[in-house]
């Protein structure tokens, strides 16, 4: 069975006000002298108002869920030690002026990309799934690309930004698209073609380094994995692990089809971009686009198409009960975006949106 793991970017906020606070540097320095080495890895990101919780690779969904919950708790304990809380929202609902981490690479990014870097404060969920080499990995990239907008819809958790309702369910994905190389790629066909494409991007001199390959999905530079990067950080841990299980099932299904000689669906990248935009606008509350032919379908039909596509893989991994149950719950109750909007409707105060999100981040209903 393929192992998988996740990286969750968490916003650091002041609990009383809901305001994002630049405490990541102090938090990580404090951890350096800590004797606690059993609670998972926390790493820095571009801005001091966020921190990333990294799980170990797992084969079991239950083990991954435990690791996600413990990683969030570890981040929250570390945040509380410096007067903050860690919350799983993909953009700060309140106005914030981010503070870039003191790091030479980040300084170069700020210099080269100006206001895009200075204002960027988005929290995503990145899923790693093991692969058996670059050729298999590229075969997977070619075969999962048109399904990835559904992950944006499922994970949508950023309706508010800068003190206002953005009109999107996942505004993070729109804000993230300002960076170069974001979004879907055309079909590669071979690992050599993928490598040549990456070399051509670097040869432009626009990118700082290969770390700026911000594709929807990519071959990891540091691990033998596919890294799928389209999701908002999810409000609840159960959604995080469901997204991870879907990613693993998409990889398994893609490898099966590749070995069977099934060609990758030739869906135009422009159509996938529109599907991603639609998913970011509506999440699961309105129509989405069919993953293959691009026609509008209900969110229920879109989810059923996904489950039919990955059904055999979910059965093989033992996830055929958990994933449909979580997707049905999201269809009935709404995604993180819907929960945030419901919080605001109740109180009319974005501070309460953050307070409610803190509770759901850590499993308090």
UniProtKB/TrEMBL annotation:
Keywords: ATP-binding, Ligase, Nucleotide-binding. Its EC number is 6.3.2.2. Gene3D superfamilies: 3.30.590.20. It is an enzyme of class 6 (ligase). One of its GO terms (biological process) is modified amino acid biosynthetic process. The keyword ATP-binding applies. InterPro entries: GCL_type2/YbdK_subfam, GCS2, Gln_synth/guanido_kin_cat_dom, YbdK. It catalyses: L-cysteine + L-glutamate + ATP = gamma-L-glutamyl-L-cysteine + ADP + phosphate + H(+). Belongs to the glutamate--cysteine ligase type 2 family. YbdK subfamily. PANTHER family: GLUTAMATE--CYSTEINE LIGASE 2-RELATED. ATP-dependent carboxylate-amine ligase which exhibits weak glutamate--cysteine ligase activity. This is Putative glutamate--cysteine ligase 2. It comes from Lacisediminihabitans changchengi.
